[in-house]
Every structure is written in C-alpha cells, then in structure tokens.
C-alpha cells in the first residue's frame, strides 16, 4: 500500500511538471503537432546558388492571419522580419529579404539571389484565427562544381582522371568501364568539396569510349565527360618551362653572336686604317718655309759684296 502511494505521488508530480509552460527555445520537436505554440515542425531545405527562394510556414490567407514572425539565425547575424494584420511591419534584417503574398493571399518569405550568406536557421511563428503554425527550417546552399577530365602518365601507367571542384555538397563520380579506381575528397575553408577520381587503364582498354559520369544535386541530370587531353595538368607546366628555357638559350646565343660580330668589325677597321703620323710632304713644306728667308738674306749679302768688289778692281 505504501509503494502504491509513492508511485501515485511520483505520477502526480510529473503531471504537474508537464503542465507547466516551458520556454519556446527548449521544446523543439521533429514533425510534432502544431497545436502547442512551443512545438515546431522541422524541415531541411537546400537551394541552388543564385536562385530565388520562397519559404512558407502556413497555408492560411492574410484574412485569417493575425501575425507572422520570422526569426532568422545566420552565420554572421541574427535578425527578425514580421507583419501583423493591424498593418505593422518589422524588418531588422535589411538585406533584401521580404514578406510577400501569393495570388491566393498566402504569406511567404522571399530571399532574392540566394547566397552563402543566407544559409542558417529560419524559425517561423504564425498565429491565425483558431490556431497557429510554427516551423523550424534549416536552410542550406547547393553549389555546382567545376568539372574536368584528362589522361596522364604515372608510374609508367596511363591514368584517367575525373575531377569535380568546389561543389557543395560533394559530387559523386563513376566510370563507364570497370577497373582499379580510387576517389579522394577534400574540403575547403568555405565548406565546398573537391572530388577527384582516378582510374588506372588496363592494357588493351578502349580509351576512345571511356567516360566518367558526375552526379550533383545542383544539376537535374548527369554530366558526362570523355578524357582526351594528354597534356593536361602535370604536363603543361613542364612543357611551358621547356619552351621558356629554349627561348632564353636562343636569345643568349644570338646576343653572344651579335657581340662577336661587333668586335670583329672593329678589329678589321683598326687594321685597314692609315697611320696617324704627320705626312712627309707637309713637313717638307714647313721646313722650306722656315729656311727660305735665310737663303734670300744670304743671296742679298753676296750680291752687295760682289758689287763692292767690282768697284775696287
């Protein structure tokens, strides 16, 4: 009897605790009933980068709605957008998001040009005549990857490579031919993923009809690639280095030949040029001009002397 009384007391105390109204952030359930204002229907949605996004949390029209409030928790901020049937509006986000109505007067939250900054948790609380709807929507982004495929040689073997870069979520890659393939997935700091699949080609494998199929939620269908370029990736840098080295060697050789030719021409001009000593003819003329006055003086003296001698004979 005593045990029964203790059990009854415990059950009564639990019912008292459940009947109390908990905080709105402490009672979050998945796919729960919307009869309680603390219960939220949880959704997980993803949208393509750059798309127009519309989020709804009630199928009631504006005539039935009393108010609707979106509480948004993003990576860099938290904000709120709301509207009441009294005409009051509240927008603390100021980033392009807005409340709109469909043609049938149903409310929805519009997000233009969806980007990574819009990723977060969107909590919607709407109250209408006779009830309320509460949703907790985890919104993520889908980014299409850049894709490429090529052949390369490694360890004396030809390898086919298929790559999907910077996608979110990670892409999946498969090959049209079975074989020894391996995939490596790496994540970037922005939450995007790069997947590279490598297939070692067996001897006699048909390379012409080899292809890889890439699947990603960003696309409606598959992307099929056929690797053909043998000079992609590791071969192109080495080829460029080789070309640059050849050009530099050729330019150096031409410069060396040009300098040698200039030096040879200067030597030839030096050997064939005349002597820089003063010419003999000019020196004789100078000597004659310097001696001529003296010769005239002697001749005159001699003539005077002869004239005097004639007078005495």
Features of the shown structure:
single chain; 313 residues; alpha+beta; 6-stranded mixed beta sheet; 4-stranded antiparallel beta sheet; 3 helices; 35% strand; disordered C terminus
The chain-level structural class is alpha+beta
Low-confidence stretches: 1-37, 282-289, 303-313
**Tally of separate helices:** 3
Described by the principal axes of the CA atoms, the overall outline is elongated
Helix content: 25-40%
Measured on Cα atoms, how large is the radius of gyration? 50 Å
Explain briefly what this protein structure is.
This protein has 313 residues and is α+β, with helices and mostly antiparallel strands. The chain is built from three helices and 16 strands.
Structure, explained:
By secondary structure, the chain is of the alpha+beta class. Helices cover 28% and strands 35% of the residues. The protein is built from three helices and 16 strands. The chain has helices spanning 2-19, 235-272, 280-312; strands at residues 41-48, 53-55, 65-74, 78-84, 89-91, 98-101, 107-111, 120-128, 131-142, 146-154, 157-167, 172-175, 180-187, 193-200, 212-215, 223-225.
